[in-house]
Amino acid sequence: MAEPEWESLEQCLEKHLPPTDLREVSALHRRIEAIVEVAAMCGVNIICFQEAWTMPFAFCTREKLPWTEFAESAEDGPTTRFCQKLAKKHNMVVVSPILERDGAHGDVLWNTAVVISNSGAVLGKTRKNHIPRVGDFNESTYYMEGNLGHPVFQTQFGRIAVNICYGRHHPLNWFMYSVNGADIIFNPSATIGALSESMWPIEARNAAIANHCFTCAINRVGKEHFPHEFTSGDGKKAHKDFGYFYGSSYVAAPDSSRTPGLSRTRDGLLVAELNLNLCRQVNDVWNFKMTGRYDMYARELAEAVQPDYRPHIVRE
Ligand SMILES: NC(=O)NCCC(=O)O
Predict the structure, then answer these.
(1) Ligand 1 atom closest to Cα of 135?
(2) Residue 173 is assigned to a structural domain of this protein
(3) In this structure, what CATH number is given to the domain that contains residue 158?
(4) 7 Cβ neighbours under 8 A, 6+ residues apart
(5) Whose CA is nearest to atom 5 of ligand 1?
(6) Which domain holds residue 79?
(7) Mean pLDDT by 10 residues, the chain (316 residues)
(8) Is 166 in the pocket of ligand 1 (CB under 6 A)?
(9) Which of 11, 59, 188, 312 could form a disulfide with 97 if both were Cys (CB 3.0 to 4.6 A apart)?
(10) Could you tell me if residue 63 is inside a domain?
(11) ipTM of the shown complex
(12) Total domains in the fold of the chain
């Protein structure tokens, strides 16, 4: 892919973003720059940020403006250019989940993760496959289910994939990345305590076990307040915030071990050393891919999704 023109970040942001968003995005870029600096000191090879990391998780509001103004081109938006610089400077693969505006295809918005090689080139992008319709997560007001399938990116440091947030509740989503050869599946998320905290420690960990791969569950922290009230459609009082994003990011391994979680309340950088040989070693012991009977499920599922399918229930 072509080398980006290295204009300054400020120039680039000014050209692409309205003034209010510019301040916010610019501050987040600076914060991430400092965190990536520390990651580089720790020898990190691949880094992944939280879901929609350049913006408030404003999809609960169902208001289009100003939030849609945070959307950027995955290929050459200011955030991608910023991450390209980081990747090249630190020889680090960067996974950057953003709100994407696809200018080449009707200006449509997507929830996207851009994967940038340690060379600084944009390796590609992947989109959130499952869009929540639960509680305040009204994301289908903004974008629809991803249309790029389950790409796996071959990097110098291993084959990686990105299962964005709500996709972690869907075992087949993890599975397809694994079928395509992922050693590490990142799960950049934005989720809140009341809704999912009890599920959080289980889902990515179980996916690592079931798919003989590493998984990295990444959540945001803190509370975000919005100017206008919104309701959750549950008869309860209108409110101006989502509730607590509980952090607790962790990495899980195919042998069922996991790291401790990051803080529930503070920003953090979790550095983990992954021995990718473990994927094949565990695979050779447990053989889930060999014993999976995928042809049988493929046949049965192909039938089950037909509108005239009659569930196989045996009655007296
Ligand atoms: N960001 C997102 O998809 N959140 C949905 C809630 C959840 O999956 O816990």
Answers:
(1) 6
(2) yes
(3) 3.60.110.10
(4) 81
(5) 166
(6) 9-304
(7) 50 62 85 98 98 96 94 97 98 98 98 98 98 93 97 98 98 98 98 96 98 98 95 91 95 98 97 98 98 98 98 97
(8) yes
(9) 188
(10) yes
(11) 0.99
(12) 1
